[in-house]
Fold this sequence. Notes:
The protein has about 400 residues and is an alpha/beta fold. It has helices at about 1-30, 55-65, 85-90, 105-115, 140-150, 165-190, 205-210, 215-220, 220-235, 255-275, 285-295, 300-320, 330-345, 355-360, 360-375; strands at about 45-50, 75-80, 95-100, 125-130, 135, 155-160, 200-205, 240-245. It has an eight-stranded mixed sheet, sandwiched between helices. β2 (about 75-80), α3 (about 85-90) and β3 (about 95-100) form a beta-alpha-beta unit. α10 (about 255-275) crosses α15 and α12 runs antiparallel to α13 (about 330-345). The termini are far apart. Mean pLDDT is about 90; it is low at about 390-393.
Amino acid sequence: xxxxxxxxxVYLFVGVVYLFVFAVAxxxxxxxxxxxxxxxxxxxxxxxxxxxxxxxxxxVKQALVHDYPIEAYSIFVMADQLxxxxxxxxHQLPITVHQVIHEQSTKxxxxxxxxxxxxxxxxxxxxxxxxxNVMQSGCLTKVNNAFCAGRKVVQCHRTAKNxxxxxxxxxxxxxxxRINIFFAxxxxxxxxxxxxxxxxxxxxxxxxxxxxxxxxxESAGEDKEMTLQLMKKGIEVDYLADALxxxxxxxxxxxxxxxxxxxxxxxxxxxRSFFRTEFKELRSxxxxxxxxxxxxxxxxxxxxLVLPFFTFLSFLLEIFQLKIFPESMWWLSLTFVFFLxxxxxxxxxxxxxxxxxxxxxxxxxxxxxVWAASRAKMDNKEFVATTKGVNxx
Length: 393
């Protein structure tokens, strides 16, 4: 029994210490702010829209009035299974609408369709938005400054558009924790930030090269595959903490289950991707093993279940005078450090009564995560649309 407890403890200990160190680093590090550039990059705003009829028109209208020189950016909607009514409205706006038809839809395929229709000399930068994303004032200007300073990839700060119920608040907090640890925290140590799937900008030629990879196009977790391709090329992702993009958070538990199931499946699939032949030469480099280590960590919500369980079990065994190693106080300390990591990563604006009420719904959310994990399939590549703009009570 001691060996079993010890192995589990060591695995969880390594993960918790990692999260704590990067949580602290993300909180105390100064964000990168690029000087205002006189140059103006031409930016293509590309919005893959898969069955997003309820929100896409409003998103485009808000993008059209963004405070970046109108002649320096263009909007492209890659329409995948939008209704004829929605397409009719979009065609009346000063944007480019391109219908994409795939046997199996993925965001990466829709993005690549943009490159098949666009000349490389028209744009310098491609900004990828989800159909519900709304850029805040100065967002593209800050992206422009970063690219004028020589950056090839940047991830903007995606933050909650809605906090209409407990689930949306918890989803928003979860993303802010992820951003602090894996974006700000990693950049504090000079490491590449993560990609989050939207509100991210790429050098035009670089993104086209990445999307030509079949594994990227076929993946339901294209952001993770993109990260691997950037690792292979030795290109870092910078994080722009002050370039804000509003994002609709999940407010319906059934949608949450489907979304998390897809996320877990993409994490399982990406672990296998590390051992593809194309990455063989990288196995002698520390970054390869660091990225693999990251993906072998449990999802944060699972720590919230596993750590209290083993802490309780260790106390219970000691009550019955069954000696175990590590002792219960080690488990309790590890659980405390984990939750401290989460607390440190939560923005001060979320420390209010509404968040306290939302925490009361956390058990239901954690049960949903267990449901998602139990139904996750290693080879599932089905793209799942996350319902936007509708709050189902």
